[in-house]
Amino acid sequence: MPWKQVTIERPFSPDCLHELLREGHKGSASRYTHFDIVEWAGRYASELAKLHPMPDDQRLIWRITDDMQVRWELHIASHYSINDMKRFSHVDILLPRHFFQQWLTLLDA
Question: According to the model, what pLDDT value does residue 57 have?
Answer without folding.
Answer: 87
